[in-house]
Amino acid sequence: MQTIYLDVLLLQSLYVNYFLLRAAARVTHTPLRFARCLLVSAGSSLFSLLIFLPALPLLLQLLLKLTAAAATVSLAFGIQHGRWLGQFGCFFGCSFLLAGLLLAVCSTANQGFATWSNSCFYLDFSLFQLILFTALAYLLLHLCDFFRGRRHHTDEHFQVLIRLGGRTAVLEGMADTGNNLTDLFSGRPVIVCGKQSLEALLSGSSVEQLQGYRLLPCTTVTANGLLPLFRPDEICIRNLSSGKSRTADGMVGIGGTQKCAIFHPRLLEF
To answer: Which DSSP string do the residues of 89-105 spell out, in sequence order?
Structure first.
C-alpha cells in the first residue's frame, strides 16, 4: 500500500483547488482576489482527507463531491443571482476534465504513481517537484497573458457604454495594459474615465452619493493620489473592429481629463 503524506496531500489539494477556482473565474469573467482564492482553496483541501476513509458508495461520493464544489464556489465568489450556476458548472466541469487528464496520465505512468479513493487522489510527488511545477504553471500563465495582451492591436476601436439608473454615457474606449487598477474590496477591475466625459451620466449628482462610492489609492507616472470609484448598473464594451460586445463586471474610476474610458485588455476576452 502506498504511503500518503498528509502535508503533501493537503498541499496538492490546495494547488488543484486554487487553479480550478482561477479557471472558473477566468471563464466566467468573475473577479477573484488572491487572498480569498488562497484561503478558500486551503479550506476546501480538507475534503481530500476523505481518501483515508474506507470506500464509500458511489452515490455518497458524488453527493460529497457536489457539496464540496458548491461550498467552494459559494465561499470564493459568493452567491450571485444569475451567475452562481455558471460558476459552479465551470468549477465542477474543470474538476471532471482534470480527473480525466489524471486518469490518462496514470494509465501510462508507473504503478503506484497515484492513489485513488472516495473520488480523491494522491500523486507521488515530492514537495520540491510541487514547487517546481507550480513555478512552471505560473510562468505559463504569465506567458499566455502576455501573448493575449499582444493580440489587441492599436488599430482596434472600442466603445464603452456605462449605465447608471436611467442615464447612459457612451465613451470611446482604449485598452491599456498599464491600467492594472483593481478595487480593493470587491476585486473588480477599474475603468478610468475623465469627469467631463461622465457629465451626462452624473447629471449634477454628487460623486459621494453614487452607489459603491469609495476612494482608491493609485499611482500614475506623474503623481500619487486617491481615485474616486463608483459601481454602475451596467458596463458594456463593444469592439467596433469586430462588432463583438460583452458585459464587464467592473468599477468606474473618475480621474484625468481624457475623454475616453481606459480599461485593461483582459476585459476584452470575448
So the answer is: HHHHHHHHHHHHHHHHH
**Same domain flag for 199 and 180:** yes
Question: For the segment 147-198, what is each residue's pLDDT rounded down to a tens digit?
Answer: 655 555 445 789 999 998 888 889 999 888 778 788 877 778 899 998 888 8
- CA–CA dist 172, 270 (Å, integer): 18
* 82 & 109 share domain: yes
DSSP character at residue 78: -
User: What are the distances in angstroms from CA 101 to CA 20, 40, 94, 106?
Assistant: 14, 24, 10, 9
Indicate the pTM of the whole model: 0.56
Edge-to-edge strand ranges of the sheet holding 234-239: 214-219, 224-230, 251-254, 190-193, 261-263, 167-175, 158-164, 234-239, 245-247
Last residue of a domain, one of 103, 121, 150: 150
- Co-location of 132 and 39 in the same domain: yes
Tell me the residue range of the domain where 53 lies: 6-150
Number of H helices, E strands in the chain: 6, 11
